[in-house]
Amino acid sequence: TLTTLDLDSNKIGVKGAEDLANALQINKTLTTIDLRFNEIGAKGTKYLAKALQINKVTTILVLHSPHFTSSFTQALSTLNILGNEIGDKGVEYLANALQINKTLTTLELTLNEIGNQGAKHLANALQINETLTTLGLARNEIGAEGAGYLANALQINKTLTTFNIYWNDVGAKGAQDLANALQINKTLTTLDISWSDIGAKGAQHLANGLQTNTTLTILNLYYNKIGDPGAQDLANALKTNKVTTIFVVLSLRFT
Length: 255
Fold this sequence. Notes:
By secondary structure, the chain is α/β, with parallel strands linked by helices. It has nine helices and nine strands.
């Protein structure tokens, strides 16, 4: 019995998506479909979205295409649209869906030209969504402002455990906002803000957050130019924080 269908990079187009959608409406066994790089466009997405409203078995759809609708997410647990240049507008569509979605647990949005406005859309969704556990926003265009929006959401969100925002221009101010969130958040276990130019000041802010946080186990600060002062502040924080100790030390790189 077929449970997994991999159509990655086959250029099935709109017609192929329509044929697949027709099959999905009666299929009862398929659980995973990979449709990366298939040029199905908005029209093809519409066919598949309609099928997924009927098919409740297909739970994981990996769709590398900037065209999707909120109805698409109703039967998904994992959505990976890495490297599709969806921008802030695409994120807005996703964020609207997240506010009502009850199944998605992993959302990967690395390399999608997402800026501060897109981060704001996601932050609004995170304050409402109760199922997402992993969010990847690496290598986008999120600055301190966007990091602030997301940090505020983390103070309210109670399900996210892994948050990757590395290789964004978070800076010291963004690190400060994230540190404030760590003082309140009780669910986040992994935070990756490597390559984000937080500097010694940002490390100091994070050290303050770690002194009261009791749940974070992995903090990645790779390539952030925190220097000796930042390293010292973090070392002092680890005297009181007994949870993050090993992982923070292993992931630091001082330049």
